[in-house]
Design goal:
Blueprint: H1 2-7, H2 11-22, E1 26-31, E2 36-42, E3 49-56, E4 64-69, H3 79-87
Antiparallel strand pairs: 1-2, 2-3, 3-4
Length: 88
């Protein structure tokens, strides 16, 4: 639910996040009791990975409070965040 809300109407974002999960690029994934996701997602073209943090609403309603990623797209929606959501 969170992933589909995040990638809604972004076909390229959807495809890149699916490819990341299928290629086992989500290296670490953890969600705590406060519904904060912390993940590490490997970049597709580089030998590096980016740390992702996602804060979900306390209720399981599909709403993401905020998300951050260390990648250059950090100001916008990125496929690293989308991959972490899809993985989880």
């Amino acid at each position: 639910m969170y992933w589909s809300n995040y990638v809604e109407s972004h076909v390229k974002l959807s495809r890149k996040s699916e490819a990341s999960v299928e290629s086992d690029r989500v290296l670490k994934f953890f969600m705590d009791e406060l519904r904060v996701i912390r993940a590490s997602v490997q970049a597709s073209m580089k030998n590096t990975s980016y740390n992702v943090t996602i804060h979900l609403e306390p209720e399981d309603n599909g709403v993401i409070q905020s998300s951050t990623c260390q990648c250059p797209m950090r100001e916008f929606k990125c496929h690293h965040v989308a991959a972490a959501l899809l993985f989880g």
